[in-house]
Design brief:
Number of helices: 6
Number of strands: 7
Distance between the termini: 53 Å
Radius of gyration: 20 Å
Structural class: alpha/beta
Largest sheet: 5 strands, mixed
């Protein structure tokens, strides 16, 4: 910060100062959380504890999903994982989230869908959806579509077959330039559009339509 302040007061070719990041995955996470997430997401973190007999207990760090998205429609929770992976540029399945990430998302979903504290006043648990959000350029191949949000498939765990929504982790590409342009204030229309994509794809998967 001091370097930046000093730089502002300088003139001439020698007054060059560069700042930025070579870890854009963190920027990607922050942009998604800003545009789609809620404050106080730690309420949704699954926590663990070691019980050590006479030595007492020892709490471990909680699992922390990147983003929790809620819509105006009550009783639904969307757990979003920002993945700055290059599948949107390569179409190579090797560039998709791995089993560890898929299983972690399913764990997040199961926690929110089954934990008592998330039930409403009538004892009904929320419907929980999972999604990976990855970058792409909507104006260029291989996924040239002109769409700011594009569904590309879903991941499933062989060990989970109850049919719950959270067991199908949807893969959605977001146009990078569009997302960057939205980082001014949250737009409920964008949240609603993303929720609709995730919900409708799951419904088609279950019914076999589309």
């Amino acid at each position: 910060m001091i370097d930046m302040i000093q730089y502002v007061g300088k003139k001439g070719q020698n007054a060059k100062f560069f700042f930025g990041t070579d870890r854009f995955e963190y920027v990607w996470e922050k942009m998604i959380d800003f545009n789609f997430g809620i404050d106080g997401k730690d309420y949704y973190f699954p926590r663990t504890t070691w019980f050590l007999g006479a030595k007492g207990t020892h709490a471990k760090s909680a699992l922390e999903p990147d983003t929790i998205m809620l819509t105006d429609e009550k009783g639904k929770v969307f757990i979003l994982d920002a993945k700055y992976y290059k599948y949107g540029a390569t179409t190579d399945p090797a560039d998709l989230p791995r089993s560890t990430s898929i299983n972690k998302q399913i764990t997040y979903g199961e926690y929110v869908a089954t934990e008592a504290k998330f039930k409403d006043n009538n004892g009904i648990s929320p419907i929980v959806y999972n999604a990976f959000l990855m970058p792409y350029n909507c104006c260029e191949l291989p996924f040239r579509s002109g769409k700011n949000m594009l569904h590309i498939g879903e991941a499933r765990g062989d060990w989970k077959t109850s049919g719950a929504e959270y067991e199908n982790v949807q893969g959605v590409l977001l146009d990078v330039k569009w997302l960057m342009s939205k980082c001014i204030r949250q737009n409920k229309k964008d949240i609603s559009e993303l929720a609709s994509i995730i919900e409708n794809v799951f419904k088609k998967t279950v019914t076999g339509a589309g």
